[in-house]
Amino acid sequence: MQNREKSDYDSVISSYFGDEQVTALINLKVETKEADVIAEAIAQNDSVDDVYLVTGDVDIVAVVKFDSYPKLKRFLMETVSSIPGIKESKTSMVVTTFKKYGELKFEKGEVESSD
């Protein structure tokens, strides 16, 4: 993505989430021998709710919550990107939560926005 496209993307995301809390899923492909060390490093951040070592297309999945999109972006750019052994990361931001901790987050026919 070129700088202008990145800037446009950030503007769209920032305008959508504003200063609201952002929940995201961070999917990491890592060097196998470094998986435990990387998972432990990610888990140290207070904004990280859960960290899972998983099978499949990715190796680690982290569930994070930040007060705002800029704080999530800073975590990705400064913390995650500086951890040795991470080969690839993909982040998905939660737009709507339908069920959490086994409980529906909306009444039938209603949809609640992200946490």
Question: Can you put this structure into words, describing what you see?
Answer:
The protein is α+β, with helices and mostly antiparallel strands and 115 residues long. The protein has a single domain, classed as 2-Layer Sandwich (Alpha-Beta Plaits). It has 3 helices and 6 strands; from the N terminus they run αβαββαβββ. The protein has a 4-stranded antiparallel sheet. A hairpin with a 2-residue loop joins β5 and β6. The model has no long low-confidence stretch (mean pLDDT 87).
Q: Quaternary arrangement of the chains shown?
A: single chain
Largest sheet: 4 strands, antiparallel
Series of secondary-structure elements, N-terminal to C-terminal: HEHEEHEEE
The domain count comes to 1
Q: How far apart, in Å, are the first and last alpha carbons?
A: 29 Å
The mean pLDDT is 87
Structural class label: alpha+beta
How much helix is in the residues? Answer: 25-40%
Quickly name the level 1 CATH class.
Alpha Beta
Beta percentage is 25-35%
Second-tier CATH architecture: 2-Layer Sandwich
> What is the count of helical runs?
3
Rg from Cα: 15 Å
Topology:
Blueprint: H1 3-17, E1 22-30, H2 35-43, E2 48-53, E3 60-66, H3 69-79, E4 86-93, E5 99-100, E6 103-104
Antiparallel strand pairs: 1-3, 1-4, 2-3, 5-6
Describe the structure using short key phrases:
two-stranded antiparallel sheet; 115 residues; Alpha-Beta Plaits; globular
Care to give the gist of this entry?
This protein is of the alpha+beta class.
